Amino acid sequence: MIAAAHTHAGDVPAPGALAPFRVLDLTNELGQLCGRVLADLGADVIKVEPPGGDPSRWIAPFYRDEPHPERSLHWWMFNANKRGITLDLTHDDGRALFLELVRRSDFVLETSPPGAMAALGLGYDDLAAVRPSLVMTSITPFGQDGPYAQWKASDLIGAAMGGQIMLNGELGREPLRPTMSQAYAHAAIQAAVGTLIAHFHRTRSGEGQHVDASLEEAAATWLDNAAPFWDLVRVNLPRPGNGRSTGGRLSGKYVYEAADGYVAALSYGGLFGLNARQTIAWLDAHGAAADLASEEWLEKLDASRGVRPPLSDADAHHLVEVLEAFCRRLPRAQLMREAQAIRNGWAPVHTPRDLLEHEHLRARDYWTEVAHPELGASFVYPGPWARLGATPIALRRRAPLIGEHNDEVLGALLGLDEARLEALAAADVIERRGGGA
Q: 3-class DSSP state for residue 360?
């Protein structure tokens, strides 16, 4: 993970688009990406944790495989660019301090069960009374109302109930969970979009509002054409495995084994469609076209003079066999280079190591080196997810240590003196330490 990078966090980039605005982030792992997006856009995002730290600090993997609340790679990734404070919201003083922060903030993000914030006197109506222009975003498994509103759910449950899992895996076998926490990511990204739309409305009207984001609904939104396909023709698209489901049937195979890994290729690698003749000539130059170079096959596969009907299962199986044998002969880079030369969209299937070493990403200064002074090391992080010329997205700081910015936020921003901070720490309302590592 430690490696050379072109861009360094702390290089003082130009202010981001949300630089004038402040966010209070109370989210758990379901919604932390939402705050990260706003922070990347330049907002001052303050991560509010209970004393002792957020439970998501214990999500593996850990730096050097040493479990520690300051070494979770999950925490580093989803909470970079944020400042961090500790505050016990179950304590009267903690709630009072939070309300003072709300007076000076523009957004609140939270992932508590519906009604939990209101039970603390910190629901949307309570906060809007203090800050009428506030945008409060609540990210929950099933939304703020409805029969499932109080149900708990993990990423697995969101992906299952949102329909994602049913579409993953091989035809005829059990559905498969998507890798990584994709349902959480969808919910957090859509919550960020909803937050920014509410913010845009506020810039025109001065009015705040409550954004209600649902994990299940977010997952259901990302089903491509599966939902409308059922709605229109009453067919559940089959699980496509290594291909794609179109029109209720599977089309082709997308990933092939190369001599040094895997490559991805659409439409039978170009053997069927507008580019069929060029593709077959390419395979033939390597002595790998088998019988496809015959006029009978060329006429069947070439769609340059009109739309061709879908291939029969037997013909499709034969094309896949020819491509599999061809791809195993050559390394990924050569397959991609030669396919691109004849305008075929082939690509290597990159591993994380491949990505870190990829010449194109390095040439664009994508990877960003972030210092972790408490560990005496710097680490390479993914860079900006979009490039804005006037208000650049930038990685400005690593994720906060436990209570790292208590003095900075509660002292400097709210004006609490040393004696008051010490009293709050003695009462376990805050925690005055950097967490250590």
A: helix
Q: How confident is the model at residue 78 (pLDDT cuts 50, 70, 90)?
A: very high
Cβ count within 10 A of residue 4: 10
CATH number of the domain bearing residue 407? 3.40.50.10540
Model pLDDT, residue 34: 98
- Of 15 and 101, the one with more pLDDT: 101
Residues 48 and 76 in one domain: yes
Share of the chain above pLDDT 70, in %: 92
Q: Is the peptide bond before 147 cis (omega within 30 degrees of 0)?
A: no
Pairing of strands 368-372, 7-8: parallel
Q: What is the pLDDT of residue 2?
A: 36
CB 217 within 8 A of CB 140: no
199 in a domain, yes or no? yes
Do residues 57 and 72 touch, judged by C-beta distance below 8 A?
Answer: yes
Residue 55 forms part of a structural domain = yes
Q: Say whether pLDDT at 196 is over 60.
A: yes
Q: How far apart are CA 350 and CA 330, in angstroms?
A: 16
Q: Which long-range contacts (CB under 8 A, 24 or more apart) does 220-223 make?
A: 220/162, 220/163, 221/186, 221/190, 222/162, 222/164, 222/182, 222/186, 223/162, 223/163, 223/164, 223/167
Q: How far apart are CA 60 and CA 72, in angstroms?
A: 6
Q: Domain limits at 349?
A: 254-353
- 41 and 394 in contact (C-beta within 8 Å)? no
Is the residue at 84 inside a domain?
A: yes
**Single-letter residue type at 32:** Q
Kindly state whether residues 129 and 60 are assigned to the same domain: yes
How far is 423 from 416, CA to CA, in rounded Å?
A: 11
Burial status of residue 233 (CB atoms within 10 A of its CB: 0-12, 13-18, 19 or more): exposed
Residue 111 within a domain:
yes
- Global pTM reads 0.90
Task: Give the end of a domain, one of 313, 332, 353.
Answer: 353
Residue pair 280/293 in contact (Cβ under 8 Å)? The answer is yes
Structure tokens at 298: 């060329």
Do both 40 and 20 map to the same domain?
yes
- Same domain for 371 and 395, yes or no, is yes
Q: Is 143 strand, coil or helix?
A: coil
The dihedral through the CA atoms of 214, 215, 220, 223 has a sign that is: positive
Give the torsion sign (CA, 38, 43, 48, 54).
positive
Nearest to 401 by CA among 52, 8, 98, 19: 52
